[in-house]
Amino acid sequence: MSQMERRTALKLMAALGATGFAAACSTDSATEDDEAAELLSDDPVKIGLMVPQTGGYKPIGDEMAKGFQLFLDQNDQRLGGHPVNLVTADEGETADSGKAALEDLMRQGVLALTGVANSSVMLGIRDAVEEARVPLIGSNASPASLQSVVYIWRTSYVDDEPGRALAPYVAQRVPRNGKVAIIAPEFQGGLDSVEGFRQAFGPSDSRISDPVIWTEFTTEPDENHFAADISRLRDRNPDAIYCSYAGAAATQFLKQLYASGYRNQVYGPGFLTEGEVLADLKDNEANGIMTALNYSADLNNAANRRFASAYRKAHGASPTTYAMASYDAAQVLNKAIRIAGGNPNSQQVNLALGRVGQIDSPRGPWQFNQPRTPQQKWYLRRVQRDGQVLSNLLINELATLG
């Protein structure tokens, strides 16, 4: 019997009150019972997707939306057996625009929320989400200070973890009498990234004793935005730098860094060279940059082969960590809504999120830890040419964090 035929038969028997049929099939497995309950769920669920649709983070928001939609496309536009009504709101670039987007989605009566690119936005909406008692599965922003939450879960990582994963590797490669300069934007994500790196490197290590160079946060810098700060960095004559930028800011920083004459090693979190960043850089502006991330498009596991192949077919490009984490947010919601039953409410879905167990993810298997973030592997990547394009190529595993 086909999936469609099975669904039709189950609906018919449910409508007729098939008590005798249920008794006759009492030997069916629990899995079959769960499947039947899922297929009988025809009421749609409304999911709110909150991502940047304007401004410098729009490419990241686009990736997040593509990842979530890819899971829906592969699953008959359903989550937990329910047809999905996906409504999207523009997160914007500030806490205020994020709050407005959240209010818009709440007015529409969403069962659950997902998305959020900017850590400042995540902190800005924290209390409203908790008070509304509607689960938010964040698929990018994850500030380290976001603690003691009940309704906020994250499928990405905590913002200090890229630095924590990468620092021991850097410490092994910089001479004991060497110097690492640290430069980052002065906003929550940058603060967390630097703190994680410094703590894991050794906060008293003389190689990172110089003050951090904090740059003005912007998602749309001009071609001279970083000039003065890079000049200060160059004056220190470091053996290597650790920098933490994303999107258009990463592109401009790396272009201006190379133009300044800097040729030593560059390290950073994976988002430094993720997505459209590499497409906008020349070989000599990015080649050899080393980053740490929870995902690499060339990971060799069955889940990633399926995901990456489907993503490339749909979009003509390799998937990013933003797309992957949003794809996993859909996976998580799919499992939680199924667990919550035939007519779920937000509180039931939130309780079910604690029972989803291990996720078979393109990054490799992971599961939620007590703070509602992934316990997962971290990977070292190097930028180099792969055929006709610059790519982040997997080098090895760095650590398991969470």
List the helices and strands and how they pair.
Blueprint lengths: L2 H14 L2 H6 L5 H10 L5 E7 L6 H17 L3 E2 L2 E9 L4 H13 L4 E4 L3 H14 L3 E3 L13 E3 L6 H13 L6 E6 L2 H14 L11 E3 L11 H9 L4 E4 L3 H13 L5 E5 L6 H4 L3 H4 L3 E4 L8 H14 L5 H20 L5 H8 L13 E2 L5 E13 L2 E13 L1
Parallel strand pairs: 1-3, 1-4, 4-5, 5-6, 7-8, 7-9, 9-10, 10-11
Antiparallel strand pairs: 2-3, 11-13, 12-13, 13-14
Helix pairs in contact: 4-14, 5-6, 7-8, 14-15
Commentary on this structure:
- The chain has helices spanning 3-16, 19-24, 30-39, 58-74, 95-107, 119-132, 161-173, 188-201, 227-235, 247-259, 276-279, 283-286, 302-315, 321-340, 346-353; strands spanning 45-51, 78-79, 82-90, 112-115, 136-138, 152-154, 180-185, 213-215, 240-243, 265-269, 290-293, 367-368, 374-386, 389-401.
- It folds into three domains: 3-39, no CATH class; 45-157 and 300-368, Rossmann fold, CATH 3.40.50; 161-293 and 380-401, Response regulator (Rossmann fold, 3-Layer(aba) Sandwich), CATH 3.40.50.2300.
- Strand 4 (112-115), helix 6 and strand 5 form a beta-alpha-beta unit.
- With 402 residues, the protein is an alpha/beta fold.
- Helix 4 (58-74) packs across helix 14 (321-340), helix 7 (161-173) packs across helix 8 and helix 14 (321-340) crosses helix 15.
- The two termini are 43 Å apart.
Quick synopsis:
The chain has helices at residues 3-16, 19-24, 30-39, 58-74, 95-107, 119-132, 161-173, 188-201, 227-235, 247-259, 276-279, 283-286, 302-315, 321-340, 346-353, and strands at residues 45-51, 78-79, 82-90, 112-115, 136-138, 152-154, 180-185, 213-215, 240-243, 265-269, 290-293, 367-368, 374-386, 389-401. With 402 residues, it is of the alpha/beta class. The chain folds into 3 domains: 3-39, no CATH class; 45-157 and 300-368, Response regulator (Rossmann fold, 3-Layer(aba) Sandwich), CATH 3.40.50; 161-293 and 380-401, Response regulator (Rossmann fold, 3-Layer(aba) Sandwich).
